[in-house]
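Retro notes - structure team

What went well: the batch runner handled both jobs without manual restarts.
What didn't: labels got mixed up in the shared folder, which is why I'm recording both outputs here explicitly, each with its sequence directly above its tokens.

Job 1
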Amino acid sequence: MQFIKWTSLILIFLLVTLLGSIIAKKYKNRVKQLKELKVVLNIIETKIKFTQQPLTEIFKEIANSEKNNKSVNMIFKETVKNMQEECFEQVWNKAILSTKSKLDLTDEDINIIEGMGKTLGTTDIEGQVKEIEIIKEFIDSQIEKAEEERKKNEKMYKMLGGIAGIGIVIILT
């Protein structure tokens, strides 16, 4: 009987500690995903500027690239899948909405990314490049905010998970 009790208490402690670590990981993932989006925007900007490839081809390359973060690639895969059916802005927004739950980005991050759908493919090359540069600046500021939040909250949630686990074990004994 004692064995079951102590095993249960250890299991509870480990689960609560793991929960704290999972929450903390979201902060780390957000920074990673924002940096990956910036890399992808650099690729799009370069391809538009120098190769003048159509957006469908650029997005197909990005979607099929193994280098990129899989969660970020989902947005581009969804966009490519439906690109022939509707205008780019609608397809882009649908892709973001369908992948939003799988990303660790905030609503503010998502709003910035959605803004890209309004001008890509609708303006000339210079206009598209300028829009991408503006979005990259916004993403840079989001990366800075995300880094600050990660530094502040990642350690806190890991510690909170461990402390909460110990607290629960103490209460149950």
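Job 2
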Amino acid sequence: MLFNYEDVKDIYPNRDSFNSFLRRSLENGTIKKIKKGLYALVDRTTGGIYASRFQIASHLFDDSYFSYHEALEYYGLATQVFVSQFTYLTHVYVNDLEFEDVTYISKKDNCDLEILDQMESEGTRVVSLERAIVDCIDNPGYAGGLEEIENALAGCRDLYLDKVIKMLEYYDKAFLYQKVGYLFEKYFRDRVPESFYQLCLSRIGNRIQYFEANVGFAKLVLKWKLMVPTERELPNELF
């Protein structure tokens, strides 16, 4: 579905013959150019390409993969779909790329943990569900916001806690331990052993943090030392 010269050099060992193939195929509409060196096969019945956004992002660079909201979509846990942009991760920052009304935006990331290389079977590189959840809680802005994260947790299967702990230890952020502990207790309760909550509590310190909450519309969860959003109440005179 997606290819570069290396993928077809056995068929076109000569660069000139490969370039001739590209020109003919682009002209007759059997392939589309995503960027220099990366091409997609076209479904002639629909005019669209066969590859998904997940596969395109995974092929943009040798080290590109995706997490955050895009991973929630991949795992079927997203309630929103970001149709006009796709954030992917690379080890270096690169410019945005537009293809068929989708802007592919890179986010620099040097963490190599919990990346599932499925290029041979599915044509994707995606983080594990456990890392996706931790990444989203760490950066809600890349996840569609707290409500989207909570919807994902509500529909989530049991997670492998060893993978969650691995990511928490890697990021080593007191605030992240607070947020993960609070949300896991809220949505998983006794499905998660008490030792996990105790681990999170032991790393949070004494600072009270605001978690996606605004002053005046927040409530304190004392156990986790978090100010979390509360429902905004309308004045009585409106009723």
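One thing worth noting from job 2: The chain has three domains: 1-51, 52-157, 173-239.
We'll revisit the folder naming next retro.
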